[in-house]
Specification:
Largest sheet: 7 strands, mixed
Number of domains: 3
Helix content: 25-40%
Number of helices: 15
């Protein structure tokens, strides 16, 4: 007997025997739900035998047979009635458990997000992506074949999505493009560090989405529920279906605040803040201004995260404010990093270490935030040092800046487009999907080993645009992405260490060394970050003007 838990109250199993029923009752199940018709197999006990054994064991059994490969709407209704009548927990079975898992998915579709359903069934060993459209349709058999069709569909209207739409339109103005995104507001997220440091106003980092969608591009204001790559279709919430010739997937990543116990309940109060949220970055600056003494913690979770330098940028700008106001000597700064190094590219570490020393900050490597008690002002970290058993330590704080754990969005992780870790599986040079040759991805959601930054998306968008245009023309890929990413490390007000690097940590400076030496703090780099980059983002990158971002020609290996 193989029990596969889908929820705390519902478990599925392949075919059970009469002898298994006693064990099932002993394990606490109150009911058995048979979804396999009698007579499918010669070695299959009849429902009458299962029912008799259940009664002898003091539990109930119900017969809701479903023909293999055909789950009718009436079957879903009968399953729902049984679920209402039977006591929990319930064990449902069929030949493999698939029909039972499918029925549960359709039944739950009226009250659970599709991503939750797909995650739960996937964890139990059942892939429900093949019936995602029906789950989106509330469990009813969909009758549509597609509500709309576009030459290119782009999922996500963040930095990557709008940039690639604009770059495509610049190359082929007549291209029929749709962007799918439910958000009303588009944010310039690289500016939030500066908001938390009292340099930018939060409102300057936000614009209405409608004002940014390129002219001639259709905006579908909806959330994506699932992908059907074999049908060239995207399923939206409510079971609307959008068909495409080519698909670009760039919805960003998910900030998993809930992964840290107690964090969501205390964010924005009790001294708990984060520059990773628009509404919280101003609170960071408020806390920094108010703090005159005490302990301030700055956390960094395991990789990957967007803008890996952001957690320490918050530390440096806070430390600089306390240094300038003369209170730094009374503040204990602790950097709690789940990783083992200050920064992943060693060329920039010496300059950063000098600022760690200047601000008297303590470096605590292999410390991962796992829970927080805001009212008590206590944080718990799991310490996992190499070749050492994990331990938990509790640390008190007066202020804590949290960088949340980060994953691919749920609807991506459970999709056929994802790799084993949940990220979109692409060729790291062409950014084309490894399995579906009419799909590309860019930005934070794909699995190329580059830094997840807006600067990376700025370079990726023209690469994807060039390769899609070449594909439309019947050719192969023509452009490649070299892994470029940029992290302007704001080490103090007025100076930045401009980290620019590509795959493997190779340095990729954009400027001559006499103008900006990225390995040293620079006022010129600060001017770039504070004054030039915001208008470049709004007026160039998002409008298809590829300033310093022209694609690199694809290098073909010699035969």
């Amino acid at each position: 007997m193989e029990l596969r838990n889908i929820s705390s109250k519902f478990t599925v199993s392949p075919q059970i025997t009469v002898e298994d029923v006693k064990t099932i009752a002993a394990q606490g199940f109150r009911a058995i739900l048979c979804n396999r018709p009698d007579g499918e197999g010669a070695d299959q006990p009849s429902f009458k035998e299962i029912d008799a054994a259940a009664k002898a064991a003091g539990i109930e059994a119900r017969y809701v047979p479903v023909q293999s490969g055909i789950v009718k709407d009436d079957d879903v209704a009968a399953f729902g009635e049984a679920m209402e009548d039977l006591q929990r927990p319930i064990l449902a079975f069929c030949r493999t458990g698939t029909r039972s898992a499918t029925l549960w998915s359709f039944h739950e579709s009226k009250k659970r997000p599709m991503s939750d359903i797909l995650l739960a069934t996937k964890a139990a060993g059942y892939d429900m992506n093949g019936v995602a459209r029906r789950i989106a349709n509330g469990g009813r058999t969909p009758t549509d074949t597609g509500d709309a069709h576009f030459q290119v569909v782009i999922v996500g209207a963040g930095a990557g999505g709008i940039s690639v739409a604009a770059s495509l339109k610049a190359r082929k103005p007549d291209l029929d493009i749709a962007v799918i995104d439910p958000a009303d507001i588009h944010y310039y997220q690289p500016g939030w560090t500066m908001v938390g440091g009292g340099i930018f106003d939060a409102q300057a980092t936000a614009k209405t989405m409608g004002s940014l969608i390129p002219k001639g591009v259709h905006w579908i204001k909806s959330a994506v529920a699932a992908f059907e790559p074999e049908n060239n279709a995207v399923v939206l919430d409510g079971c609307r279906v959008v068909k495409y010739d080519r698909l670009v997937v760039c919805p960003g990543l998910k900030l998993d605040w809930g992964k840290v116990a107690g964090l969501e309940e205390t964010l924005g109060r009790n001294g708990v803040t984060s520059n990773y949220r628009y509404d919280l970055a101003p609170y960071t600056w408020q806390l920094v201004q108010e703090m005159k003494t005490g302990r301030s913690l700055f956390t960094q979770p395991p990789m990957p995260i967007k803008c890996a330098g952001a957690p320490q940028k918050a530390l440096y700008l806070s430390g600089d404010t306390w240094f300038r106001s003369g209170v730094l000597k009374d503040i204990d700064i602790q950097f709690m990093n789940a990783g083992g190094v200050l920064f992943g590219v060693k060329d920039y570490v010496p300059a950063l270490e000098r600022y760690i020393e200047k601000y008297g900050a303590s470096l605590n490597f292999f410390h991962n935030l796992v829970s927080i008690d805001g009212p008590a002002k206590k944080a718990v970290f799991e310490v996992v040092k190499p070749d050492t058993a994990p331990t938990l330590i509790e640390t008190e704080f007066d202020m804590i800046h949290v960088c949340p754990p980060q994953t691919a969005p749920d609807f991506i992780r459970v999709s056929p487009l994802a790799d084993a870790a949940g990220w979109i599986d692409v060729d790291q040079a062409t950014l084309r999907h490894q399995s579906f040759d009419n799909i590309w991805s860019l930005g934070d959601v794909m699995n190329a080993p580059n830094a997840k930054t807006a600067a990376a998306a700025r370079k990726q968008a023209p690469t994807v645009a060039d390769n899609i245009v070449a594909d439309i023309a019947g050719g192969s890929a023509v452009a490649q992405y070299d892994g470029y990413g940029s992290c302007p490390l704001t080490v103090e007000r007025g100076k930045i260490v401009l980290a620019e690097f590509g795959y493997g940590g190779a340095l990729k400076p954009s400027f001559p060394r006499f103008l900006i030496d990225g390995t040293k703090p620079s006022r010129a780099a600060w001017f770039l970050k504070e004054t030039l980059l915001p208008p470049i983002y709004w007026k160039a990158m998002l409008r298809g003007k590829e300033w310093m971002a022209r694609p690199e020609k694809l290098k073909v290996a010699p035969k």
